[in-house]
Amino acid sequence: MIVDDSMVARAVLTRMVELGGGIEIAAVAGTAEDAVEALAHVRVDVILLDLEMPGAGGLNKLPDILRVARGARVLIVSSLAEEGAAETVRALAEGAADTLLKPGTGRIQGRFADHLMAKIRALGVTPVEEEPVGAMRPAPMRAMGSEPLSILAVGASTGGIHALGRFFADLPRRIDAPIVVTQHLPPPFMDVFARQLGTAAKRVTRIAVEGMRLVDDEIVIAPGDAHLTVEQRRDSLYVRLTGGRAASGCLPSVDPMFASIAALKRPGSVGVILSGMGRDGVEGSAALVAAGGSVLVQDEETSAVWGMPRAVAEAGLAAAILPPEKLARRVASRIGQNHADK
What we know:
Radius of gyration: 20 Å
Strand order of the largest sheet: 8-9-7-6-12-13-14
Domain Response regulatory: 1-117
Order of helices and strands: EHEHEHEHHEHHEHEHEEEEHEHEHEH
CATH architecture of the largest domain: 3-Layer(aba) Sandwich
InterPro entries: CheB-like (IPR008248), CheB_C (IPR035909), CheY-like_superfamily (IPR011006), Sig_transdc_resp-reg_Me-estase (IPR000673), Sig_transdc_resp-reg_receiver (IPR001789)
EC number: 3.1.1.61
Distance between the termini: 41 Å
Protein name: protein-glutamate methylesterase
Shape: elongated
Active site: 157, 184, 280
Number of strands: 14
């Protein structure tokens, strides 16, 4: 379904999707209100949603769209996806699965079309379509350690901002351990993302800078243009930023973050993999588990894209496969009764 007030944009997007092959345009709408009404009568897998439209607009009507969409994933396709970082990050936090900057209608071909089709396919493909029957069989789960939590590392991508909000809402305010987060997101979004996550998590939240000391119960986020890794100096942990593409092709990547924590060989290290496309986090999870840490992953039902969590689960590295809220409670079980308060 395409929801955009521009007739030209609707026509171009429709043509682009049709040329991509194998995907049907089930409905179009010129306002968010029309989209809500149409979704009562038509079932779709993916909704391309503009944010700037007459009426209430895509952002304000997003909760209503998600309520009637019957599980359809929302991809924000908007010119606000860069200049309006606050609006876009808010949409992602409220449940939109992914975002794509819409160029001017005269420049809406080429690489944009390739990115658009890749995102639609990732959001719309079901496990049955993606793999032969019986192919998706996660390995048995590992036992989770019992040592007190010493550091919490969280990785996420597509759909991860919404999942992060759900996870931190159920995590006790005091865990007596530092928290590091890698979320795949362009650099222009990072300031807004850090502020929003801090508000949702009710914690001090900072963007990582080289040499920053990690503090218990505070969140440090990977910048959009470097990997966040951790090193120990004397009795404290510090941020070390590294460049270059990781094996997963992501920047920032979860793999270097997890691998650096594994190198600390600290009992009680816990990694969490939330919704995301691809396999980022598998190599880092393997290193973390080999060093005595534990890795928990989000379940398929609540993930916008069950790519990263699935890859870790299928590799036999997961100690739990649960919704974000239950993952938070599993982490809370490692911090002891004295500090399991909000």
